[in-house]
Amino acid sequence: MRKAKPKKRYILPDPKFNDTLVTRFVNNLMVDGKKSIAYRIFYDAVEKVESKVGENGLEVWKKALNNISPSVEVKSRRVGGATFQVPMEVRPDRKIALGIKWMISYARRRGEKTMMDRLAGEIIAASKGEGAGVKKKDDTHRMAEANKAFSHFRF
Q: Can you give the residue ranges of the Small ribosomal subunit protein uS7 domain (predicted)?
């Protein structure tokens, strides 16, 4: 176990929307330290969403991220030699982190040609409450619901 809790690192807001959540998303989207390319992909995807949906692209993205973020998850807990999947509430910070990771990973698996198109497609699908990211959230919630009997093992 570590002696002290590590200090919380605060990140700067992004240049276009002045939002720290966008910076967090772009930091996860970034590959090989190429942040300017990651910003370009994100901004182009938001613009494409705006043109397709006809609403504010950033608001649609936030709604999509909200739809993907889980509120409960299962964690493995060993009790007397047996391992139980115990449902746990997800901390707000982790909720956002999981939503971001799921959105990016499922966008990367999509069939469109460029990452900008894939991300835009995933954002639109998630904002409507469909798509792979929302399915992952529903599966996580379903698993937590199925293992509700073990919730007394919470720590």
A: 1-148
